[in-house]
Each structure stands twice: as structure tokens, then as C-alpha cells.
Amino acid sequence: MQANRRRDTKPEVVLRRALHRLGYRYRKDLLLRLEDVKVRPDIVFTRRKVAVFVDGCFWHVCPQHGRQPTTNEWYWTPKLRRNMERDERANEALRQEGWSVVRVWEHEALDEAIASVQAALH
After folding, report:
1. CB-based contact 59:80 (threshold 8 Å)
2. Which 3-state string (H, E, C) describes the chain?
3. Is 102 in contact with 116 (CB distance < 8 Å)?
4. Is the per-residue pLDDT at 64 higher than 90?
5. Rounded to an integer, what distance in angstroms lies between the CA atom of residue 87 and that of residue 81?
6. pLDDT tens, position by position, 8-44
7. I want to staple 69 with a disulfide (CB 3.0 to 4.6 A). Which of 1, 48, 76, 117 is the partner?
8. How far apart are CA 94 and CA 64, in angstroms?
9. CA 3 to CA 60: how far, in whole Å?
């Protein structure tokens, strides 16, 4: 599992480059310490309080492409469930602090992802 990147994944880099080309400036992989939760969004617009997460289909159990593992199910099922619960806690904590949360799946088209981010920013 060491080969799995936590940041700078291909979908994340593609989205960041596109946003930068459009003139948006942001922080990447910024640790936000909220009351009882630490959150590390992939892209953060600090002034506008917008947090963007680029979620992998497997790791965050995409309803369209996520699949149940067939080997070591005893390990993966609880792990993936914890990932989903952590995402929900992060969303709730950010919203309580006045942040807008944008979650983009890795399979989403770039235009759709940019439109979601722009909608949250404006």
C-alpha cells in the first residue's frame, strides 16, 4: 500500500492545473484543524472557504465504479467503511465551520469537475 499516493494523484493534478490555467489560486493539501477533526482537502480556497476533495473510486466506494473486494474481504470491507465515515465526518465538520465542500470523483469529466468548483466559488 506504500505505492498508493495520498496526494498529487493524476486526477487531482489535472484538476489543479486546469483551475490554475483559469486564474484560480489555491492551497494544496492544507491541514485544516477544526474543533474536533483534522481535515486535509486536496485543494483549498482559504478566502472563500471552499474545500475540494478528489476521491478515488475504490478508496471512497464510488456508487458507479466502486466494487467490493473479493480477497481479504475481512480487511477491506471495514477499511472502506471507515473511509466513508471519515469523509462524512469531514464534510459535516467543514460545513459547521462555514466551509463549502466539493467532492469530485476521479472518473468525472474535467469540465464537470471545474463547473462544480466554480459553482462553489461563486
Report:
1. yes
2. CCCCCCCCCHHHHHHHHHHHHCCCCCEECCCEECCCCEECCCEEECCCCEEEEEECCCCCCCCCCCCCCCCCHHHHHHHHHHHHHHHHHHHHHHHHCCCEEEEEECCCCHHHHHHHHHHHHC
3. yes
4. no
5. 10
6. 789 999 999 999 999 999 999 899 998 889 999 999 9
7. 76
8. 25
9. 17
Cell of 79: 477499511
Sheet holding 50-55, edge to edge: 27-28, 43-45, 50-55, 100-105
Which amino acid appears at position 83 of this protein? N
Quickly count: other Cβ atoms within 10 Å of residue 50's Cβ: 21
Buried (b) or exposed (e) across 104-122, using 16+ Cβ within 10 A?
bbbebeeeebbebbeebbe
C-alpha dihedral over 51, 93, 83, 63, to 10 degrees? -70
